[in-house]
Specification:
The chain is an alpha/beta fold and 483 residues long. Helices cover 41% and strands 14% of the residues. It has a domain at 101-118 and 235-444: 3-Layer(aba) Sandwich (Rossmann fold), CATH 3.40.50. Helix 11 links the parallel strand 9 (259-264) and strand 10. The structure holds pyridoxal-5'-phosphate.
Length: 483
Amino acid sequence: MKYISTRGQSPALSFSEILLGGLAPDGGLYLPESYPQFNDADLSEMRNMNYGELAFAILTRLIDENDIPATDLKAIIDKTYRADVYGYTRDSQNAEDIAPTLKLEYNLYLLSLSNGPTLAFKDMAMQLLGNLFEYVLAKTGKTTNILGATSGDTGAAAEYAMRGKKGISVFMLSPHKKMSRFQSAQMFSLKDSNIHNIAVKGVFDDCQDMVKAVSNDHAFKSQHKIGAINSINWGRIIAQVVYYFKGYLAVTKNNSEKVSFAVPSGNFGNVCAGHIARMMGLPIEKLVVATNENDVLDEFFKTGVYRPRGSSNTYHTSSPSMDISKASNFERFVFDLVGRDATKVRELWNKVDNGGAFDLNMSELNAVGYFTKVTSYGFVSGNSNHANRMHTIRVAYNNYGVTIDTHTADGLKVALEHRDVNTPMLVLETALPVKFEDAIVEALGSKPTRPASLNGLEDLPQRFDVMDFDVAAIKQYIVDKTT
Ligand SMILES: *Cc1c(COP(=O)(O)O)cnc(C)c1O
């Protein structure tokens, strides 16, 4: 299996060759040259598999034996998907079951993806990435310095995945005093010597601009082996494909049944994995894209117009991990949507990269059935705001006895708008409510329960360095810490 760029002007590479990088050299994103297909017999066989076996069955079709031998891949997966890593479960759930479902009512479920170490779905993929990185670096005798910017969830998931890993150092920039108390405590209490937290006196965009400035200094980047683990990383996407299979198999009895998934979305990474699962043959009816007030994706699925907004037009909301106005994985989906025409993608993103928008002409798309459920592209969407979010958290609590976080609430709100009671609907739970305690107190008047292992988290000693918005300073910092 080789990987090609959505812009069609980079050489095809193997999985481990694209694993550590970000964008392809031509500015595109990597996708497999064709999607492996899972037929009826494959799906039937998968019904007897646990999570690790499912992950192996899927990943082994995407990674060649001569790239990562199957025995090594198996060992990496077994090391990753363990109950002691993903074992936080609600009372009725079985801790041995990775990514369990929770029934809310007839044909309505939560898919619990946030039971990992940082209590957000990003752990599902990031933990695997940590083990894959360590393996590939050891094999090639290389090291990497991962530089990232976070407003909360990504940084924590990355640090918990990379802590103590050989050959890897992490430099994570976050906006000083702007994360939730829980989020800062999660990151800043880590004691591992390969984890460096830098609190930047500024906002998230300043952090991201510093990362971009360092990455654009190609000489510095290659000399100091700067790597990335952002949302466009293909390793993260394939790890996410697995739980769509898991969710489907958990709520169906035979392969003629279809299910729908509702996905709280920002960078389009999570729902892109759903799209890919469907392209591989998983019987998905609708993919429901849920946004918050930052509704760029909702606008696209309703009008065919993709109009990213600048960071100054991004709202700060109570589902902050979806405060994104440029969906970095969206190009992967559009590549498939336009029939894998790289010239067309270059033309469209030429507009986007110059601050513009594009219109895929809804009536044409509808004429060929792209958005209707009868094609393999069935997508619908909706958005949510703070009042909807508070209301939905209360509905989930009162009707189902379940406390959900603000992002999952956006997913449930939009799921209910697009629900067909004859088709199971799975809402992806992208974070646990304890990460966003203040919002839960506002909605329900009391704090959510917290996993016992995290009691007193905010009282642990914290370790981080404060820095001004200063590109030279972060470069010097990386040099000082790595030599
Ligand atoms: C990252 C994140 C999202 C958005 O996921 P994308 O893959 O960027 O669409 C939603 N909810 C939570 C809690 C997140 O951390």
